[in-house]
Amino acid sequence: MPASHLLGADAAPGLRAERLRPALQTRVLGRAGTGAGAQIRALHLTRGAAQLRGPDERTLTAPVFAWMPWDEALRLDLGASAQGVHLLVDPGALERALHHRPEAATLRFIAGRTTVLQLGADAAAGTAVQGCLDGMLSETQGAAALAPAVIDSLLHVLLVLLYRGQPQAVQAEARGTTALGTRFAALVEAHFRDHWTAQRYARVLGISRDRLNDICQRDFGRPPGALIRERLHLEARLYLENSALSIDQIGALLGFSATPQFARFFRANEGQPPGRFRAALRRGDGAEIGGHAAPYAWP
Length: 299
Fold this sequence. Notes:
InterPro entries: Homeodomain-like_sf, HTH_AraC. By secondary structure, the chain is α+β, with helices and mostly antiparallel strands. Helix content is 49%, strand content 18%. It has two domains: 3-173, Jelly Rolls (Sandwich); 179-297, Orthogonal Bundle (Arc Repressor Mutant, subunit A), CATH 1.10.10. The chain is globular, with a radius of gyration of 20 Å.
């Protein structure tokens, strides 16, 4: 049977790690146990094989590391001899791993697609992946200080390893932006809570407001103001979905001077006030909330 460790509020909320051991028969991982929101399964096989079932069927043969955004159409069949580590990651955990990182946009692209890293020909990458996952399992079992920070950092390293292991064409697609577009996205990651205007971002980048608009339209398909609002709105949704903080506390954390100001912003971008959104979430009304926030969808 797998040895599972669910990370609670004192560890790293939203990330489950389990060690897979040989079993008597094939084990099936589907939607059960993943919760209501967007989830990601990550699987490191050191022995045996698994079969990903669904629209994008794949055979996974050890040694391999697979990263799989999950939905109800997918199923993972683990062979009886399969050994390794399995992770279940929710949007909040992923966002913590990417938070305020200049390379966040590139890694979000990787995080948003099924990605497989074959490790047989790259012993160094295999050792690095194994080290990250062993570290996560160790942190879940103990009560060491700052365990969440360690786990978030290890998850970030896993995403970097996935990126490095992709063909150059995929890496180029992930980067997919001009140098200034990448710098703008990194600045937004660092300052969206400060409510900088598009003009201020342009000034820090040393370009005109019109030039920034042209760059954002070309690289992201939206003007800078829309991108800034989307990032703030995404963060608000993540807090409402994944934290026990009050609406007052969330508004303050996001840099709003008063709760009504936060409520107006959220309603303008979501179509309903934050209290109603959270109530619908607790009822499990997916239609009313329009799906769960996915950090890898920005920018």
